[in-house]
Amino acid sequence: MNRIENVSRRGFLQGVVSTGAFVLGAQLLPESFYAAPSDARAAGPALGPAGDPLSTTAFHPNAFVGLEPDGTVVIVAHRSEMGTGSRTSLPRIVADEMEADWSRVRIVQAIGDAKYGNQDTDGSHSVRSFFDVMRQCGASARVMLVQAAALQWNVPVGECEASPQPHVVIHRPTGRTVGYGELAAAAAKLPVPPKESVVFKPRSEWRYIGKEGTIFDLEDICTGKAGYGMDARVDGMLYASVEHPPVLGGKVASLDDSEALKVAGVRQTIPIDPFKPPHAFQPLGGVAVIADNTWAAFQGRQKLNIKWDNGDNASFNSDAYRKELEQTVRQPCKVAWNRGDVDAEFAKAAKTIEAGYYVPLLAHASMEPPVAVAEYRDGRVEAWAPTQDPQAVQATVGSAVGIPKENVTCYVTLLGGAFGRKSKPDYVAEAAVLSKKTGRPVKVVWTREDDIKFDYYHTVAATYMKAALGANGMPTAWLQRSAFPPIGSTFELNNTYGSGGELGMGWTDTPFTIPNFRAENGPATAHVRIGWLRSVANIYHAFAVQSFAAELAHEAGRDQLDYLLALIGPDRVIDKKDLGNDYDNMGADYKDYPVDTARLRRVTQLAAEQAGWGKQKSGSGRGIGIAAHRSFVTYVATVVQVEMDDQGKVRIGRVDSAVDTGTVVSPDSVRNQMEGAAVFGTSLAKYGEITATNGAINQSNFMDYGMCRINEAPREIHVHIVESDAPPAGVGEPGVPPFAPALCNAIFAATGKRVRELPLTRSGLV
Predict the structure, then answer these.
(1) pTM for the complete prediction?
(2) Is the terminal CB of the chain with fewer CB neighbours within 10 Å at N or C?
(3) Would you state the pLDDT for residue 489?
């Protein structure tokens, strides 16, 4: 039976494969995968070896795939599993090229180690970045097994193949077969074939890639057997709950812990030093309550009497800050990209349209709040955590306790959701710091209130749009300005402008055929921790661009769909030099992943066709809206249909999303992510809003940071996958950006009320 190996504390480093096993190395990784990513999303450089789940046999220490003498194929999953299916998709690629029997595959979760390349499971690039690497690993193993069989039979290797029956090599002239397990020892003695000599299977012969199948550990997840961060246990561990400063940068002015120490089970309180700016992934500081169990830690924490020095960010109030951002974008800002002469065109235009849009701070609010176990001993740390980036754990923990990052071992559990939050390992560093101070393993558990009040928030953004319309109603000039505290503020003091990466998320790369176009970005100071959340800057950029496009369609008296297609214009591949000086294309090679308007047009037409566009009558409380967006080098168009109830509240009916993500490894995962994006987008659009008063976050739990319940989710969600032989692209995030503008465009069609700010609670629509 297929299963994920739940590796124990000691067993992870030994006994995963036996003596004599065939282990294929990861020298096949291109050199770039070992380099420290320059993107701020990456948290730090790649790190040195910390152990090998495939033992110390051939090709150690770099290993992805091994073969046991009994025929079991062991594949290392080096990316984190949080519901996206990457822990299944990547091994399926290996198994396909290897011609392995999937029922005889065992998957082992990798620890943090640079030998696996980039392990940061962010940015929707697990399959994109490692598709060819995994194929190379599988295909090389297949070639070596065929060579081993040919040597055993003393026949020409060209007479042997590992197909069509999986897990065996066949000698075609005689029909003889030999199982993979019987070849393991002999194959282990062969050299890895040169990369250029290995031929991949043709697409027509793919056994698992692109075929239907569920995630590897679905049964364990559904039956409660799967291990998450909260399930981690170490003998003799203590429990901790941390009272953090209510305002970013605050520190303890005075502490009275006498009542806390009276709580049964509480052992002590420990101050955690405030961070040194920039905060990056350092612990926030505060006071930890150390106890024998979580209940005692929570109860003791409630009885702490702390007076805080809140520092400079105590002046932050979200309502006033919103006005500041909106004033910023009403003035000329830093030009991020320009073509033509927008100002001259506006000066002579007979008609101009303006609009402003606003998206507030957002919290990740994943089902599983942050939690981690760490043990500091003899200058080394072992940590167990639901993390998106175990290498970031190594770097952050090492810095926090003053040891080399190579001395930190991070074991990765399943993640109960993440959306970007769990690539910031401040909570793991807290556990390590407290373990060093107590001399015992420590489990830090965050509450839901901690999770929402002390998040790395998705940034607040104000945008301003202006267009000059020609006689045909199409824009002859287009100006867009945005202002938002950037992610870079987390890593660099006084960083107030969006990076090229953030502006390249639907802003400087707006794929419209407009002769005069300018994108600008204004300064914005961060007063809370800013991080990336599912689809990042695409959220507010798509909301502004796609909402404004629909507004212009209405002004021109045109159908939304027809107008959007006219804006996209003729099929073409946009030259990279026309997308902004700092456009990085999410790190993807532009020759393989160009902006192709034909693909954007295709998903737009497909979503509309499947939704029955033009067959519904809008108005009188019913409406349909559309939006299309390219993000993470994937093209998605979404159509949302709504109806208003007797109280004027919006109900979401049918949602159709068409997605072109290039070559698909796991269709079920693509559908899951698009369906999940519609539900996630519903929550953000209806309820997502974090506000602050005097620097402190006002929201604390789901009663004031709402999630859509099952009765509020879209009634129907239909996902339409475009068949494509283009290189694989992102899946986890691209479904989110077009949802909110499509929803709001549908609300306008139903009610005539234009929504320019989120969440919908501000407009009285939910």
Answers:
(1) 0.93
(2) N
(3) 98
